[in-house]
Write a structure and sequence with these properties.
Four Helix Bundle (Hemerythrin (Met), subunit A); 0% strand; 139 residues; mainly alpha; 6 helices
Length: 139
């Protein structure tokens, strides 16, 4: 993530496509971080018996679609320089990691395997931290 922060700082003064890429990175990171947080909260609430499994499954399915939408939106960007290509790759990796963790939770809940969903909590937290770092620096 340090590389992402440094790349975003380098791109801060740029205009045009570089600025658009930074804005897209911040927007996609913000959207994906929200969905990752929703997924984490659903697992925690299900574990505490404050949420029914069917509701948790639907919440996570919706969150998965939200992460997919954010990732798809960002993947349409066209990096124009070496620095923006590196940023693009870092943001894409963070979005992929988030998508992988949310999908793993959806699959676990679909198999009625709360323990497997709980094992994804650390990955969800890590994905959330990475996405929030991107959003803060890119904004």
């Amino acid at each position: 993530m340090v590389v992402v922060v440094m790349l975003l700082v380098l791109l801060t003064g740029c205009q045009g496509p570089e600025q658009q890429l930074r804005q897209a990175a911040a927007q996609s990171a913000r959207e994906a971080a929200s969905e990752v947080g929703t997924t984490r909260l659903a697992v925690e609430q299900l574990r505490s018996r404050r949420l029914w499994s069917q509701s948790a499954e639907q919440i996570v399915k919706d969150a998965e679609q939200g992460v997919e939408k954010a990732a798809s939106s960002f993947s349409a960007q066209q990096p124009a320089t070496g620095a923006s290509t590196s940023l693009y790759e870092q943001v894409t990796k963070a979005l992929d990691d988030a998508q992988t963790a949310v999908t793993a939770v959806r699959i676990a809940l679909g198999n009625n395997d709360l323990a497997a969903a709980e094992r994804q909590l650390d990955q969800l937290r890590a994905a959330s931290r990475d996405l929030q770092s991107i959003e803060e620096v890119a904004s």
